[in-house]
User: What shape does this take?
Amino acid sequence: MEHDAGILGSSVTFNILFDAAIKAGEFKLAEMILHEMKERNLAITRFTRAGLIYYQGLRHDGNGVRRAYQEFVDAGEIVDTLVLNCVITSLVHAGEPVAAEHVYHRMKEMHQRLGGHEVPLLDYKASRDLGRALQRASAEHRHDKQYLSDLQKRQTLAPNYRTYTILISHHASPQGGALERIVRLIEEMQAYGLPVRGRIFMELFRGFAFHGGVRYTAWTTVRLSSVWTTFIKLDEEEMKDVYIAKWIVIWILRAFNRCAGPHTALQIWNEVQERWKPLVEGDAVVLRILNDLHRKRLREPRI
Assistant: This one.
């Protein structure tokens, strides 16, 4: 753009490039972009500073996450739930889930000091608009410490749906496995007035697919069946964001295959078919799983 059109990249341009480089895992490119921003004396925005926290997590540097967060605060940026969620995600990526849980507990403590009311449900647009408003406020009142202090005190720092999704996803992952912790997180989430949405069910089915089928595990077939029954009930009641779709079907089949075997998984597939049809007939991933289940079923000993 600069070479062909003679238009210099703005702060916004470089912030977008920096964010894209981080998410693509191109860490050297991200460092080059950040260096170029400093060379040009371009403003580093709130979103770039949050990106630096995430960047350190992807580099598996827990201390780097803490430094980046401290730099965020020292720059006069306003901390809100979105930023703390970024810290939690980054610490999980850095291999420090205990530290991530500590941040979560601090969020709960701070929320309780403010009265412990139900957490407002913000969609993506509302969260984005709030972030932009906080960025403008920090830029316009950079030297007014009292104003920034008062604004910080008014921010909601309570864990939200995204906070719980991050933590539940970790505990359902191969690196986690603590079903009792997931159950507790869901109870705490509901206590804040946050509904159990489809993404939480998908993480639960993922957990059974990873950790079920093992002796003495908490991830039993009975508990999996209970989750399945609850999911179907909410789907039939048309609960918001709880519905049958491709990837949740994939994890449901994998979960039942792992916990109860291919025969039961195929029975569940028959139930799924009564409620859902793939958008593309014969979806490759679903079809591959079904073929695998049929092969395993044929190899099962007949009684």
The radius of gyration is 23 Å. Residues 97-113 form the longest helix (17 residues).
